[in-house]
Write a structure and sequence with these properties.
With about 250 residues, the chain is an all-alpha fold. About 65% of the residues lie in helices and about 0% in strands. The chain has twelve helices and no strands.
């Protein structure tokens, strides 16, 4: 039942637990329709993130290269990494779920091989999937694994529309990176999504959205920023105070 919930970490934990049970016992059966729907949901999520990355013009990065400190990274690089990492997690969940449909195919080592820096191990993982997964899922899964461009199926959107969808989305780190990118590029028209981000339960999302509003729309967001003066997170309070100072200067 947990596979049908909108909770990615819980879905992942449930899929891993089921896979371990099926490796240890031959009498465990699963509802293949539920597992299949869960796989499709993960593929749709990964495809959506890939299309947003392409729509924003964010180029791929070498995930095996040394990463500099976050302080030295631009928001565009951080957002690219955040999107790629979330895609990787979604693909890993899909592979674990596929193991439930193909318990004797050796899919338990595929995810580890895909994370390897060795091209031979990654190639082996792709070959196992190619020989195991049914055709309709394989056509969607392999391009995601190999970072191939996906066919465009959605109408083109503006940069602001893509970022707005990420700011109000369910992935906190992606939302914070998107808000920071809007801040760095001084993009107009994002006051609404950024104000919604101020209500996030995650402090660093509220901080990033407050910082962006302080630069992009300090006067319009004044009342929303004032509510953050009592925020439990000190960093959020400091950003809100600075943004309100700027708002008063703009109004004057």
């Amino acid at each position: 039942a947990a596979l049908e919930l909108d909770d990615p970490p819980l879905r992942a934990a449930s899929a891993r637990a089921l896979a371990r049970l099926m490796r240890r016992r031959s009498d465990v059966v699963v509802r293949r329709d539920v597992v299949t729907r869960a796989i499709v949901a993960e593929l749709e999520l990964s495809e959506s993130l890939a299309r947003i990355q392409r729509g924003l013009g964010l180029h791929g990065v070498d995930r095996t290269a040394p990463i500099r400190s976050a302080r030295g990274q631009g928001a565009e690089v951080l957002l690219t990494l955040a999107l790629i990492e979330e895609r990787d997690r979604s693909i890993e969940r899909a592979i674990t779920l596929l193991e439930l449909l193909h318990p004797n195919a050796g899919l338990d080592v595929v995810a580890d091989n895909l994370r390897s820096d060795l091209p031979s191990r990654r190639a082996n993982a792709v070959e196992v999937l190619d020989n195991t997964v049914r055709e309709d899922m394989k056509k969607r899964l392999l391009p995601l694994i190999e970072d191939r461009a996906l066919p465009r199926t959605d109408p083109p959107r503006s940069r602001q529309e893509y970022l707005a969808s990420l700011i109000v989305g369910r992935h906190p780190w992606i939302a914070a990176c998107a808000a920071q990118l809007a801040n760095e590029e001084r993009l107009p028209g994002l006051a609404g999504p950024l104000e919604r981000g101020l209500a996030s339960p995650v402090p660093y999302v509220r901080e990033a959205c407050a910082s962006a509003l302080g630069r992009l729309a300090p006067a319009e967001a004044r009342s929303a920023l004032e509510k953050l003066l009592d925020d439990p997170a000190p960093a959020v309070r400091r950003v809100a105070e600075g943004a309100l100072v700027l708002a008063r200067l703009v109004s004057a």
